[in-house]
Each structure stands twice: as structure tokens, then as C-alpha cells.
Please model this.
Amino acid sequence: MAKRKVKEEGSVLFDAYYQSIYQERWPRLLQALEQPRESVALSDGLLKNYYMDEASILAAKALSVQSGDSVLDMCAAPGGKTLVIASSLQGTGTLISNDRSSARRARLHQVITDHLDEPWRNNIVVTGHDASRWALYEQEAYDKILLDAPCSSERHVISDPKALSLWSASRPKHLAIMQFAMLASALEAVKVGGQILYSTCSINPMENQMVLEKLAKKRPGRFLP
Model:
């Protein structure tokens, strides 16, 4: 009975939190989040298809990577966006695919090996650094940086009773702090005139536009939105 009560409380807190943000729009948004999503096949230049969410493909393509670019994928696992970037580079330039988690990094290695021919793999380096501290070691090093940041991922939360039971309003706050640190680090690591693409799979403004607004205040004049 105690465990069931915790889950119910998590659900109530979650619903009330997002209701306060989206008000009368929340029921329809929640319904949309509950709908199953079909993966689409990424195939351009790959040894075999890789299936992923279409929005993730579009996000990586929006970075507009060009042949010869130096690119950093700061939170790369499981690897789908790295494949999108690699298909744009076609073996040119450099691609650093980073993920701090050793388990996720192993998955990233496997995805790269399974889906990319050797000439396209040769310019990819997989690393395991803390993305929020990247600028301590490299500054103005990359033409393009993709930061698909860890986030609240509400679609996952509402589909997973355990995740819902653990949810609290403090989680988005902690994530937003981490996201800001990562994005601030990316700003130092990108070349002058380069591009950063920041994305999440969260619908929480605290983890999206508010992160950008905070960076604009902390680093005035350093970037164009």
C-alpha cells in the first residue's frame, strides 16, 4: 500500500506541476505525450538502418554540419545523432562523440561500429568527459557543437511508473542547473563564428528557453540566438 501511495503522489505532483505551466492546454498536451511514437529509419550512407525518433534526426540535421567541420557531440549516447553528423561529414573533418556514462559509451561504440563503414569511423573519437567542464580543457576548438542535454523527458516519465513515483519538482531545477553549465561550457569551446545547437526532449521552459535566457544574461554579447 505504501508503494502505491508514493506512485499516486508522484503522479499528482507531476500533473499539478505541468498544469501550472500549461493551464488549459495541459490535458491535450498530456494526451499527445501519451501517444506512442513510431521510430523512423536513418539510412543515409549507413551500413544498415538505425531507427530513432524523427525529431532527433531533425535536431541533428539543423546543426547544418558541412564537410571538413570539426564537431563536438557533447552528450552523444546512444549514438543516433552522431550517425547523422557522420553522414554529413562523410569521413572528413573531426567528430568528438562524448558521453560521461561508461555503459552508455559502450552502447555508443557499438552503434558506431555497427552502422558506419571504416572510412567514416576513422575521424570519430569517443570520449567520456564531463560536458559541463569541457571548457577547462578546450576553448574555441569546434566549428559546430551539438548539446542534446539530459532532461526531464516527460514522455518517458509518464510511461514509466517507477520514474513517475520518483518525480519531484526539484528534478527540473537540478537539471536546468546542469544544462546551463553544459551550455556555458559549449559556448567557450565553440570557435568564434561557430554554431551550437542546444536541444532537449523536455517540454519544461525551465530546461529550454530559460537556460538560453540565463546564458544571454551571464554572457552578454557572446552569442546570437
About this structure: The chain has one domain: 2-218.
